[in-house]
Design a protein that fits this description.
single chain; about 200 residues; mainly beta; Leucine-rich repeat, LRR (right-handed beta-alpha superhelix)
Length: about 200
């Protein structure tokens, strides 16, 4: 056997799922896990023992097709969160993640964003991808540290006026053909350096 490949571990999809599930269940509060980057499409749900990790600051589940985001996710001291799947609701408890700096939500289904989004006072980057975002909560205006926002949603029709309170926003990308107009005070965003917008005329 070629020495280059002697330490390679080959697992099929079932083995990957079983091993990922086993390790997550073992984590609990026993491990001082601070970062997790997981690719396992068969893992549809987050286990309570997983989301209760008290030192987890980086969580990338872009390769996991989640059907539901658990309320207990708000217990983690996250600074980076990336989730993908077919979830339709983002729990209010997400607003408890006061140290969160990057939030990336990508769902195949229409999603509703919680009012508690405004509690993410440390948030600097926000990525939202969904075929339909019902609305952006007014509370987003409280995310005063936001510098980058990227929204991809065909049926988002309006941005709240509080959007114009994001005085530190430097870059905004809106890929939504349902958006008919920008907020009336949009010109007051003095820090905005880049605007890319695809919208209806």
């Amino acid at each position: 056997m070629n020495r280059e490949w002697k330490d390679m571990l080959l697992l099929d999809d079932d083995e990957i799922y079983t091993e990922a599930k086993r390790r997550i269940e073992e984590c609990g509060e026993k491990l001082s896990l601070t970062a997790l980057d997981l690719y396992c499409p068969r893992l549809k749900a987050l286990l309570d023992s997983f989301v209760n990790l008290k030192k987890l600051v980086y969580l990338n589940l872009g390769g996991v097709h989640i059907a539901k985001i658990p309320d207990s996710l708000g217990n983690c001291p996250l600074q980076y969160l990336e989730l993908s799947g077919n979830f339709s609701t983002v729990p209010e408890t997400l607003g408890n993640c006061a140290k969160l700096k990057v939030l990336n939500l990508n769902s195949d289904k229409p999603i509703s964003l919680p009012k508690s989004l405004g509690g993410l006072s440390a948030l600097k980057e926000l990525y939202l991808v969904s075929p339909e975002i019902h609305s952006i909560p007014d509370s987003i205006g409280n995310c005063e540290n936001l510098k980058l926002i990227i929204i991809e949603s065909e049926k988002l029709t309006v941005l709240p006026e509080s959007f114009c309170e994001l005085k530190n926003m430097e870059e905004l990308r809106l890929d939504t053909f349902g958006l008919k107009a920008l907020p009336s005070a949009f010109g007051s965003l003095a820090s905005l350096k880049a605007l890319m917008s695809f919208q209806a005329h």
